[in-house]
Protein 1
Amino acid sequence: MHIADGIVTLPVLAGSTTLALAGVAIGLARTKYEQIPQTAVLSASFFVASLIHVPIGPGQVHLVLNGLAGLILGWSVFPALLIALLLQAILFGYGGVTVLGINTLNMALPGVICFYLFRAVLKNCQTRPAVFASGFILGGAAIAGSAVMIAATLYLTNQEFVEVAGAILLAHIPIIIVEGAMTGAALVFLKKVSPQIFNQ
């Protein structure tokens, strides 16, 4: 899911970084003081989940949990993922510092979109199967959105990356299923022990 340094052209880099910074600014402005521990926990969850990854050309495939983070945090998912990505770039060399904006945008934006699409749906789900099904779709949709954005980023950078972009999309199919199941299970648990989280 990370794009490496030195791959993306300057126009794509500049545009993506600008959009990512706008997302981070909105996220910081909307983050309430009581949300900070929650944001930190989800940032750490992303950090750990994405440590196990498979390199594919100029990109990587790994768990993200951006749907779960986006649903709970809303716009605050932007600064949460930015911090985790920065630490990964510095400590492990994943992605890179110059592409922080692109990687943040590609992972956080689908989470924000899922926040608006699924928040009300999950708030009104009353049974465990309904919550799990909604969470499965949410988690799968978020990671699929990120995969499409990464493929588009590579294609816009160089059309010769079209085969790599296709490979990345195909490689994310099992990740979509795993993310969907994990997100569904997590939301069933949260709905039981902390239902107020869906009303914030």
Protein 2
Amino acid sequence: MSGQLDPAVADRLKRTPDGLVCAVAQQRGTGEVLMVAWMDDEALHRTLTTRRATYYSRSRQQLWVKGETSGHTQYVHEVRLDCDGDTLLLTVDQVGAACHTGDRTCFDATVLLAEA
């Protein structure tokens, strides 16, 4: 599947030199932050048209659909662009673990600062 990102959306994006935008996935209903990944224009276009979270792997340099191999999918309900245009917020229904380690979120491991 190949397509063009809406020019009105594309013009608002502030990309890294590699052409990527940070994407934060948040659980619908609870607001729990699940993971942070990257999107290029094609990944965002696919996400907007299929409602399946599609990201860009910097290490593999290719698109990947969340859960395509693991079954741990993200159904996208909403996508928002922040005021600076450099971060996307995806409100999703997460099925299974969001993190590649098998944890529910990628933020379950190390707490750097907690309530006293």
Protein 3
Amino acid sequence: MSTIAPEFRLSRFIASLTDIIFWILLIFSIIGLPLVFILLFYIKLPVVNGQLLTPYLAMTWMADPSRTIPIIKSLIHTEFFRIIAFPGFGFAALLAAATIFVERKFLAKIQLRVGPLYCGKIEGILQLMADGLKLMSKEIIIPAKADKPIFWVAPLLFVGTAAALTSLIPVAPGWVAANPNVGLLTVFATIGFFPIITVLSSWSANSKWTFIGGIRALHQMISFEIPLILSLLGIVILTGTLNLTEIVESQQHYWWIVFMPIGAIVFFITIIAELERIPFDLPEAESEIVAGWLTEFSGMMYGLIQLGTYLKLYAFAGLFTVLFLGGWNGPMVWPPFPQEIITNGITIGPITAHIPGLPLFDQEMLNGTLWFVIKTVGVILVILLPRGVFPRIRIDMLLHTGWYTLIGLAFVNIFIALGLLYAGVLGHGGLMQ
């Protein structure tokens, strides 16, 4: 089957795109610009280098790369940028949104289906945008007997907790939104909020389906959080640190998955259970309890919870990359920034422009980000895979797996780590001294 729908015409696509751009510019010119100039009467304009920063001067500077690039570079290295854009919420939300579309196409290929196709014409690339617009246009229905304050605030708490978890993931050397010395303990503490939020969400809806789903989620998360924590103790024993950045730096020569494959397997299974994904999707079993603890949520409240779920998916995949796959460590494949542009500037005809502040990002940071994204996307695809090939397991099998099998394997992993340490294979004088 062709990747382009039969009725697709490039000329129609360009014409529709041109129409959209025209109407955006027209509306901005008629409504947006007058509003901006009205607001300028009530806002005190800043003074930069002895000059009043008027809109005309700002637009002039924006057209001059020698002025804008140093400003952009200074903004990039602020804490605000790290939290809001990269590697914080913006970067995580972008990867999470892409994961939603990739999951639908990936599972469709596994099950010999097409998946999203017509929305956006080329492989249905606009399906995600269409779903977002649909959720924003849907009515938010609050159950009559719901505990409304808790019901309203639960989706925000869920997204906020997931965003806090993503802020702890180091993406590249020196690039992390929050880098506490006890980062791994902070991760455990943040994960502990999800069962509380889930139970509050299910209870506040005052519905039997949501409450059953919430109780199932509580049992499942508590059962798997203990082996999740135990599976990582081996890494703490061998590295002697709880700082995630230092754990990544300890894997410059060997990844921890090489020495602790049992811990990696246990951690991987527990994160699938924490994400409530097949085969551990009992809290949202459609054939049994409608949509579980999400049944009564609608509109953007449901959309926020889904966003939080995929942020949580990215965070867990990033954690697996950081803890077991070496994080950003990898061979240098990113090409260096051309040195002649830094020294001689950019020459266009008779004009030579010297642009200070280049490059915006150093080669090591870009290379580290590339390897982190490649590894994390690979982990995400493996997490998505069971949904297309496995059935849902029974609740008794789930609890037995969490309380018996995984906890036992986690202790075996701890004993292996202690054996490697005392045998001198790892640690001082060993392979990772």
Protein 4
Amino acid sequence: MNKLISIDDVKTFLKDGMGLMVGGFMGVGTPSSLVSAVMDANIKNIKLIATDTATPEKAVGPLIVNKRIKKLIASHIGTNPETRDK
């Protein structure tokens, strides 16, 4: 049994107000395909759990910049001025 699913199949689970927990640190190991899918689907009001918010253009940074996050739980936000300013 294959436990991997395509990004197109993942898109069927995306919805406004969902919780999203991602791994990685400063963009290394962050699921960039998932972040892109969330951006493409125009998902909003996300409750995000991540170790950091990287930089505005990297990893989950675009979600912050484009105001897709409603609630953030993270341990490091210092390198993304968009997060610090909110």
